[in-house]
Amino acid sequence: MSSVEPIRMVSNGAPAIGSPKSIGGSAAIEAEVIAAASGGVSPPQRCFRLTLAYDGTNYFGWQRQPRHPSVQAAVEKAICAITGDKQTHAWASSRTDTGVHALGQSAVFTSAGWPAPADRIPLAINTKLPMDIVVRDAVEVPLRFNPLRLSTGKRYRYQVYSARKPDPIGARTQWWVPQLMQLPPMLSAAQRFLGAHDFAAFQTSGSPRSTTIREVRELTIEAIEHMDGTRYTIEVEASGFLYNMVRNIVGTLVQIGVGRKPPEWVTEVLASRDRRQAGQTAPACGLFLLEVKY
Predict the structure, then answer these.
(1) What was the pLDDT predicted at 210?
(2) Which residues pair with 220 in a beta bridge?
(3) Active site members
(4) Is the pLDDT of residue 13 over 70?
(5) Which residue(s) pair with 223 in the sheet?
(6) 187: phi then psi, degrees, rounded to nearest 5
(7) Is 28 helix (H, G, I), strand (E, B) or coil?
(8) 255: how many CB neighbours lie within 10 A of its CB?
(9) What percent of the chain has pLDDT over 70?
């Protein structure tokens, strides 16, 4: 299988591989593809790591689904469009769930069909992606680079809007809590999550792990006035996360923020190792994968 788009003849007899827009509107890149194809030698496989942002509202998560749209399927289709590969596989650092967003998802693919430097990939591939998915950056990495196993940590953001009336503009990217929340008890509770703990009580079943111990390196909460209420931005950075761990932490913090539980409750829930003792799982719409660290 050829690793570049097949050369065809245009009306003036010159070889062509499609319009410049098909690989980012760059005539220089087009020339490199033609040169690679005419050399008669198969180019080597290369590995690229993409940093992606996307609005997950219209997708059934990152992972490819048989009958539903996914971010992975859209990204792989765009990769094939710019490399000429008939098929590819994009490995991600996190399989974000249905409705979850990303500002810094990390995904890796290999191809012999991209002859230009890695930093030219974003402008090319973004012409092939829907408007709610964007490749922010691309770097070349060693073959067999594993975006999940080589990660040293991740950072997530969650947005909560506390007000008597909803925010129609932010409905896709934040959890509306109709009760008023108080920041000081939430900040006190947040300190109790820091460090290495057994987070079994904050894990939703469905993704077994060899250990439920995780180290939370940072947990911040900021509150700003927004429309008729307050928007709370919660960011959590850890060495790794259990399934729905961030959303369960947020659900617990909201219980404390509205006054239903005291900050000391966090310590009791951690010690219980019982998911039923923690707060509800916050909705997917407010969650963002912010950064993957290497």
Answers:
(1) 86
(2) 235
(3) 97
(4) no
(5) 232
(6) -65, -40
(7) helix
(8) 21
(9) 85
Q: Closest by alpha carbon to 47, among 127, 92, 125, 114?
A: 114
The string of DSSP codes covering the chain is --SSPPPEE-TTS-EE-S-GGGGTS-HHHHHHHHHHHHT-SPPPPEEEEEEEEE-GGGSS-SS--SSS--HHHHHHHHHHHHH--S----EES--PPTT-EEEEEEEEEEESS--S-GGGHHHHHTTTS-TTEEEEEEEEE-TT--TTTT--EEEEEEEEEE-SS--SSSTTTSEEE-S---HHHHHHHHHTT-EEEE-GGG--SSS--S--EEEEEEEEEEEEEETTEEEEEEEEEES---TTHHHHHHHHHHHHHTTSS-TTHHHHHHHHT-GGGS-PPPPGGGEEEEEEE-
CATH number for the segment(s) 153-293:
3.30.70.660
Lowest mean pLDDT among 46-50, 55-59, 206-210, 230-234: 206-210
Give the integer Cα–Cα distance in Å for 133 and 221. Answer: 27
Q: Report the pLDDT value the prediction gives residue 21, as an integer from 0 to 100.
A: 39
Mean pLDDT along residues 251-263: 98
Give the residue among 265, 16, 287 at the shortest CA–CA distance from 159. 287
In this predicted structure, the answer to whether residue 7 has a pLDDT above a threshold of 70 is: no
Q: Average of pLDDT values for 92-102?
A: 96
Please name the residue that has the structure tokens 């050829």: 2
pLDDT tier for residue 227 given thresholds of 50, 70 and 90 = very high
Per-residue tokens: 3? 């690793």
8-141 sits in which CATH class? alpha beta
Domain positions in the chain: 8-141, 153-293
pLDDT at 118 > cutoff 70? yes
Topology match between the domains 8-141 and 153-293: yes
What global pTM score does this model have? 0.84
